[in-house]
Amino acid sequence: MSAEILIERGIGATRALVIDGGAVIAAHFERDDDGPAAGAVHVARLTKILEPGRRGIMRLAEHEGLIEPLPYCPEGGLLRVEVTRAALHESGRPRLAKLRNIEGDAVAEGEVRAGPDLATRLAGQGRLMRLSGPGEDRLEAAGWSEAVEAARSGHVAFAGGLLTISPTPAMTVIDIDGPGDPEALALAAAGAVSAAIACFDIQGSIGVDFPTLEGKAARARIGELLDATLPAPFERTAVNGWGFVQIVRPRRRASFVEAVRAPGFAALELLRRAGRSGAGNRTLAAHPAVIGWLERHPGLVRELAQSLGGDITLHADPALAMVAGDVHA
What pTM does this model have? Predict the structure, then answer.
């Protein structure tokens, strides 16, 4: 297998790039505060019934999850549950992990089995290389910032056109723009759509708006290209007369696009840059929202101070953009 996986465990998060032929084919970001990963099994306590027989809130160690459907269980009772989707860090409305009740003993509260972490999920996709230490920034050299910017902007260029990726609460929408013949543009875009879905680990409901195509043969050809290139497993609708197709992939965690737009991402990136800046005292200057997030997570700032062997000063600067923090010695 020719792919190379660069994985870096940093302060508050783990990052990874999958490289094949010198190109980034997948980017991943996993936060330490994501809570239990999909696949984890817990004996959890029901803390609140939202709708009897339908939904409830359960406590999993220091985290919470939404169980649906809810079997009979009094508040305060224990259930064995599996995490089907990790928590999502969305602006203004963080979404709890999703849980389902499974068979098994539910006597002692606690974790029964951890869900697979990022390194475990990527194992087998290529040669795994764990990065550590303040030396050469191999992750950055391989294209980390470029992947982050593409996911943040949602703009992915391909030969003859441009994809615009927009996550919404209902689905991730991918729009296709470009000049020239609509059928040629759609055919070129089909592979780019599949590559973007794989690269950014886009899951759940995905709506793709191809150019309007006349004739069933052209629409069928687009469908065949998607079937041949989309990362499995997935289901899709036919491409309709307006060029729209809906793709559904299992929803297990946030996509890379969602991760880089979530609250705290800019702060965690600033911690990474500071951690690679050498030993000694440091001042982190950033937008007030970024500094506020760091002030609410003092343990991460202490971890940075310990790794640098110095004091960390936080400085809020409203003139700085959200993604433009600075590290000063």
Answer: 0.91
